[in-house]
Structures are given as C-alpha cells and as structure tokens.
C-alpha cells in the first residue's frame, strides 16, 4: 500500500466534505469536553474527600436551657460544670484518648462569635443569643473512620444533647456532587453516540460522493483495505482536532476558572490543578481516535458490502 497515495486521497476527502468535517469536529469537541468535565469532577470529589475527611471532627453538643425534656440527657437543663468535667475526663481517659488526636472546648461566647461570622449576612443572626448555642467539645480523631467509638461512648452521658460525626454532612454534599458528575457522564455518553453516528454518516456520504472512483479502483484490483484506509483517516483526523480542542478546553477550565477564579473565593478546600487536566487530555485524545476509527471503519465496511 502506497502511503503517499492514501494520504492524498484522505486529504481530498477532507477538502470535499469540509462542512461535514467541521460538524464532526464540533460534535467530538463538545462530547469529549463533557467526558473530560465528568472525569475532572470525579477527581475533584476524590481530592475533596481526602482533604475534608482528614479534617472532619466529632462534635459533642452539650445541653442548653432550650434542649427540652424530650432528650433524657437534658432533663436538668443546661449542662453543669460537673457534666462538662465528666466529658473532658472521658476524652482524656484511657478508653478514648488512644483514638483522639486533639480536642478543644467551645463555650457559649465562642460559639456565638463563630455563628455571627458564619451567618453575618443572614437575618437570623440578629435573633440568636449566646445561651441558645450549644457548648461543644470538638474532637479530631487519629482515624476518622472510628468516630462511632466516640458516638457510642458519649451519647448516653448526662448533659450530652448529641454527638455528631461531621462526615455525615460531608457525605450528603458528596452525594450531590456525585449526582452532578453522573449526569455529566450520561450527557457525555449520549454525545459520544451522536459523534459516532455523525462520523459514520459523514464517511458514508464521502464514499457515496466518490462512488465512481471507488468503482474504478475496484475494477483495477484495489484491495478493500486500500479503499477503506483514506476514509478511516478522514474520520480520525476530524476527531483528532475535536479531541485536541476538548483537551484545551479542559485545561482552560482548570487554569482560568478553578485555579484562577474559584480557588481565590473558596480557600477552605483543595482543588484540581493544571496537572490533572494534563492527565485527562491524553485520555480524551485516545477516546476520540478510537471512536473515530471504529465508526469510520464500520461505516465504510458496510458501504463496500452494499
């Protein structure tokens, strides 16, 4: 097979079907951008889990005057000094201390100050008083997966309103993020199917427009492989451009949006970097080439059998 002749035929096909090639490039670009975004979201979720789960705390909320009689630990009203001392003794004792990295106590005034900072633009902040907020022991564990040990040990003690593992809140957030990621994956899958169909249609139209040439090539003994290769290369070339554009778009999203804008406004977490985009880009390139090669080869093979 003469490589120069094959490449010339492929270039002629691209020139004759420029509008269809542009369509393939655009559909491939959009579909692979969705794929890359979904991959980035999964990488971001994984990075956020590593970052936040290591910092997740167990909160031991002490009773207040408004805790109510429904909680049997709070029938005496606000937790007194003896009950606070008992909780601290448990945290420092031989049973729980091996699991604890560090802990600190937050009284009413500190809780109120933190509440005002967190909800400074919320009207509810004007109606909250310090005595309404729980005094709390905040506990950092050596292994966050062992939070149940603290929950079981402290929940039933007098003066304890509730013991909460912050990972339960994080799980809800990550569930929403995962749902968004899976939605992006579903859209990407639909777009990839559309790209494959468009590539196949483009190749069949290209072959039909050159049906006389193909007939002559068959008459002179050209092999099916020789006839098919230029068409497959047309599809690969169009998809390659779309893949490169998608890789560039993913890098731009990370560089300008995540690192350039979002990172400065949300400084309490860790974000994916341009290095992550450079990992995703080759994946998109490979997916685009394989998709185009398979679709184009299938289309031209079916056409030649007709």
UniProtKB/TrEMBL annotation:
Location within or outside the cell: Cell membrane
Q: Where is the ABC3 transporter permease C-terminal domain?
A: 186-296
Gene3D superfamilies referenced in this protein's UniProt entry, alphabetically: 3.30.70.3040
Q: Which InterPro entries match?
A: ABC3_permease_C, FtsX, FtsX_actino, FtsX_ECD
What residue intervals traverse the membrane? 21-45, 173-203, 231-258, 278-300
Q: What does the record say about its membrane topology?
A: Multi-pass membrane protein
Q: Which UniProt keywords apply?
A: Cell cycle, Cell division, Cell membrane, Membrane, Transmembrane, Transmembrane helix
Query: Which superkingdom does the taxonomy of this entry point to?
Result: Bacteria
Question: Where would I find the FtsX extracellular domain in this sequence?
Answer: 57-163
What is this protein's function per UniProt?
Part of the ABC transporter FtsEX involved in cellular division.
**Cross-referenced NCBIfam families:** FtsX_actino
- Can you state the subunit structure given in the record? Forms a membrane-associated complex with FtsE.
Report the PANTHER family cross-referenced here.
Answer: CELL DIVISION PROTEIN FTSX
Query: Of which family is this protein a member?
Result: Belongs to the ABC-4 integral membrane protein family. FtsX subfamily.
* Record-given protein name: Cell division protein FtsX
Give the organism the record lists.
Answer: Leifsonia stereocauli
The root-end lineage is:
Bacteria, Bacillati, Actinomycetota, Actinomycetes, Micrococcales
């Amino acid at each position: 097979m003469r490589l120069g002749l094959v490449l010339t035929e492929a270039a002629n096909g691209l020139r004759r079907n420029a509008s269809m090639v542009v369509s393939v490039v655009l559909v491939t670009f959009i579909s692979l951008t969705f794929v890359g975004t979904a991959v980035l979201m999964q990488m971001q979720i994984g990075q956020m889990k590593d970052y936040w789960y290591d910092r997740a705390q167990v909160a031991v909320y002490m009773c207040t005057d408004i805790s109510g009689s429904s909680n049997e630990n709070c029938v005496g009203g606000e937790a007194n000094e003896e009950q606070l001392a008992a909780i601290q003794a448990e945290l420092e004792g031989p049973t729980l201390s091996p699991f604890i990295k560090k802990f600190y106590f937050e009284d009413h005034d500190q809780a109120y100050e933190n509440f005002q900072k967190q909800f400074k633009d919320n009207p509810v902040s004007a109606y909250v008083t310090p005595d309404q907020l729980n005094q709390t022991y905040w506990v950092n564990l050596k292994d966050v997966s062992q939070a149940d040990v603290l929950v079981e040990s402290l929940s039933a003690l007098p003066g304890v309103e509730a013991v909460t593992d912050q990972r339960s809140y994080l799980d809800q957030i990550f569930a929403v993020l995962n749902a968004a990621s899976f939605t992006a994956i579903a859209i990407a899958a639909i777009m990839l199917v559309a790209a494959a169909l468009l590539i196949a249609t483009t190749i069949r139209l290209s072959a039909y427009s050159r049906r006389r040439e193909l007939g002559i090539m068959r008459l002179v003994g050209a092999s099916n492989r020789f006839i098919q290769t230029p068409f497959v290369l047309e599809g690969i070339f169009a998809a390659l451009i779309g893949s490169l554009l998608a890789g560039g778009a993913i890098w731009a999203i990370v560089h300008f949006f995540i690192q350039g804008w979002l990172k400065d406004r949300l400084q309490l977490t860790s974000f994916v970097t341009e290095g992550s985009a450079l990992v995703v880009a080759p994946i998109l390139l490979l997916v685009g080439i394989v998709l185009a090669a398979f679709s184009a080869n299938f289309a031209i093979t079916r056409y030649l059998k007709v």
